[in-house]
TrEMBL record:
GO MF term set: transferase activity
InterPro entries in alphabetical order: Glycos_transf_N, Glycos_transf_N_sf, Kdotransferase
UniProt subcellular location: Cell membrane
Catalytic reaction equation(s): lipid IVA (E. coli) + CMP-3-deoxy-beta-D-manno-octulosonate = alpha-Kdo-(2->6)-lipid IVA (E. coli) + CMP + H(+)
Protein's UniProt name: 3-deoxy-D-manno-octulosonic acid transferase
Enzyme class: transferase
Pathway: Bacterial outer membrane biogenesis; LPS core biosynthesis
Function: Involved in lipopolysaccharide (LPS) biosynthesis. Catalyzes the transfer of 3-deoxy-D-manno-octulosonate (Kdo) residue(s) from CMP-Kdo to lipid IV(A), the tetraacyldisaccharide-1,4'-bisphosphate precursor of lipid A.
Signal peptide residues on this chain, from the entry's feature table: none
EC id: 2.4.99.12
Residues in 3-deoxy-D-manno-octulosonic-acid transferase N-terminal domain copies: 46-210
Keywords of the record: Cell membrane, Lipopolysaccharide biosynthesis, Membrane, Transferase
Principal location: membrane
Amino acid sequence: MVYFFYNILVFKIDWILKFLSLFVKQIREELEKRNRSLHQIFSKSADGKFVIWLHSASVGELDQAKALTETIRKKNKNVFIIQSVFSSSVKETSFQDPLADVYFYLPLDRAHAYDQIFSHFQPKVLFVMAWDTWPNLLKKANQMGTKSYLTCASLSSGSSRKNPLIRSLTKASFRYLTGIYPSHELMAKEFEGLVTETTDFQVLGDTRFESVLNKLENKSPNPTFTNFLLEQKDFLSKNKPVILGSTYGICEEHFINYLKKHKDESFYWIFPHKWEETRMKDFISNLEKYGPVGVFSKRNPGDSLPKFLLFDLMGILAFAYHYGSFAYVGGAWLHRVHNTIEPAALGLPVITGPKIYNAPEAIVMRELGGLFQTETESDFIEKFHLLTTDQTLREKMGNGNRNFVVENRGASDKIYNRVFSNAQN
């Protein structure tokens, strides 16, 4: 019965979107893009290979899927990988990654939206990363004999899926899952009452940890940054800047208000989420009241480091954390926090805004004492000041974060061994 009402709701949403697309260009282009990406995949065939479908909600979950895909391909050469994403924040340029054989945007979760995908590719296994469990997708997979697994599974205590109105749908769709593998013991308890006895349930970790560690260990930053580090070697041996990563306007506003209340001797490296000229001009003007400001791409060799250095080049942030004292990670005042694993992997304590409920690693880091989740501007200012002044606290939080990341390496192997020893039987 719950599926009946759910499908009525999806039908109405579908109708509304199609109607609005007649008048709203942005919606029309979005629907066209999604339809185009879906139709293009049928030009390819699995040619008798073992087909695996991985689905990710957004960019972070796609990183989880990539780590798992790398392990699958190392252990099994005769596979055909389908990779779907839901969020438009995943750019089509990401679809050029050769890890998967086809990429596409998941269609709206209508009752028959996936019929052609299953009939054409006949996937044997479906992995849903973290939390994006669309009810009709799981039901269709079950009908077609595809084994479905929720891997790196996360569910926060405040999740809407536990809302009394949605809980019955969550439970109904979860019964189609062959296995649910939470990312951490602290996540496992959130699934109580939602998992049937026949569903394989085991904490196997989060593949995103190894994705981040592999990146930090095997890839290199923007060469301009490498040259900068060599030039500033002496300075960085004595000073550890505070890293502000993925900042939005509201993050920058809170930081300015922190500076109004507290004077400190810290240096700051700031990485705006988007370099918007007007916003950056205003931000720089406000920062100049508290010390010299520089823009990374406009520096000249030999220039002394200003108190505030703004980075306007890509491919640097993850590696810059190595030189920091602690990290602020943006996104959590608006939608969801950005990557907190990167600074944690490099032994930094982390401070964020309030919205971390879709980031299980951030939730666990908070519970383990390595992350400050701040709810108000005054709370942010208080915790930020505490981190700038208390070195013992920084070291304790940072060491805990580093241990947390390292201990969670190897999730892909655990998932592969749990699933694929039986998947082909």
